[in-house]
Amino acid sequence: MTDMTKDILAGVAGRRRDGAGDALGSNSEIGRKLKQYYDELVSDDVPDRFAQLLSQLEQAEPAQKKD
């Protein structure tokens, strides 16, 4: 292993131990934003019209299975 490789690995290990550096860099920020967006999306209420359409679909499915 070269001295340069050893220095790089030591730097990465040091950042992980003290938490000073983020190994994922900007990808961590992207991940946080995606999680925040997903959490907001999942917590939204289902519109009444959409709920009605789902109900109608559920009622129609058993009738189709009998045929």
Give unreliable regions as ranges. none
Whole-number mean pLDDT: 76
Structural class: mainly alpha
Q: Helix and strand succession?
A: HHH
| Termini gap | 70 Å
Count of helix runs: 3
**Cα-based radius of gyration, to the nearest Å:** 25 Å
Helix fraction bin: over 70%
Q: How many beta-strand elements?
A: 0
| Tertiary shape | elongated
Tell me the domain tally: 1
Description:
The protein is mainly alpha-helical and 67 residues long. The chain has one domain. It has 3 helices and no strands. The chain has helices spanning 3-18, 26-43, 48-66. The radius of gyration is 25 Å and the shape is elongated. The N and C termini lie far apart (70 Å).
List the helices and strands and how they pair.
Elements: H1 3-18, H2 26-43, H3 48-66
A few lines on this structure:
It is built from three helices and no strands.
Quickly list its features.
67 residues; mainly alpha; 0% strand; 79% helix
